[in-house]
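User: I'm putting together notes for a lab meeting next week and I want to include a structural view of one of the chains we've been expressing. I don't have a solved structure, so I'd like a prediction I can at least talk through. The sequence is below, exactly as it appears in our construct file.
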Amino acid sequence: MIKKFSIIFIMGSFLILGSSCNLFKTTKKNEHTLNKKSSLLDRNQPASIDRIEQRKSIQMIFHTTEEAFCRISYWPLNPNQKSSNIEALKIDCPNSQPSDSFDIIIKDLDPTFTYRFSIEAWIKGSEASKYEPYVIDESQSGHTNFGNVKAQSIAVASVDLTLGEANIHRFEYSNIAQLDEIQASLSPQKGCTHNKPKIEIYEQEAKLIKINGLVSRGYATGIGKAWPNRDDMIRIEFQKTYQPADQWEWNYKLYDNDISFTLKPPARFISTQIESVDLKILDTTNFDREEKELKIDPTMPLKINWTSKNNNENSLVYVQIGHSSLPSALYCIYDGKSQNITIDPSSFRDLPNGMHFLTITIQQSYFQKFKEKNTPIWLMKTREWRSIKIKK
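Assistant: Thanks for the context. Below is the predicted structure for the 392-residue chain, given as structure tokens.
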């Protein structure tokens, strides 16, 4: 049976759930690592660090390959991601309860600094000095800097808010993938190009991880069902009306274990408008695409304005003009935050005369990590899009 404990640590004072803990200051030093054993941290269940409570606290989740004791040191970094001269704080995990699953919250951090964490773990009857520490840095965004953490497969939930559905797959890699590379692939270079951006690096689709009883509640409600004649995909069809809830709860069973996680409401458009010869406001998507038509002048810039909500640092807006089969189709990528942009007419002058479609999409992506041991990481991708017919 997996044992786990939680610690809530506040600088200057602390509260411990389930046991006791010693707190003291120590100066960082380089220890001689000759003849040390490898860290006990489980690389297949990567440690995670996430900012919470207006970036004043962090939640750290990690696992060990064996039930162990642990000790955590942490200190702020300077802007160049180098160690500062500030003394580290060190905390001993309870030595009466060895565990292989840890969920720790550290409060009262400086929201303007990033931190480095050194995790020491050792089995009963041994000591910390026998094992190499596991060092992990917090990224500028407040999410895990995965570094060289690798994954054989990842569960991916692709949520289409416009269609009101989500498709869940598991992707498997012919070569083990690094999570920081996957993160980078989800943040393509901003600007406009005639080459369709490649924003995913999934190499091989595999059978879906055995998931039962998948249910979504709160912001969007739906029940997961297997696709007809397919065992490698699950689909959720949401109720069309999204609720003004602060949280979006997902629940499912994995190998008879109950797993749940809660998301913030996804990035959404509040309003979008497009202007060329005339001005069109896209309140919602017209699936028949007959009601709205925009005339564009190839000598005039195309102006697009949008306002949005629920953005995070991974929110992006995509604008596509023309079908992807056309070599002159235009693809533009911007930050998701509300803004006005202007597309120079030279960018779409080679688009053939006639009818085309312009689609504007707001997309968000992030990893969902779990404190439960041997639970796969999920990549959550949400998108909302609006489309209009244009005439050149």
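A couple of points you could mention at the meeting. Residues 1-33, 140-145 have pLDDT under 50 and may be disordered. The longest strand covers residues 57-76.

User: Perfect, that's what I needed.
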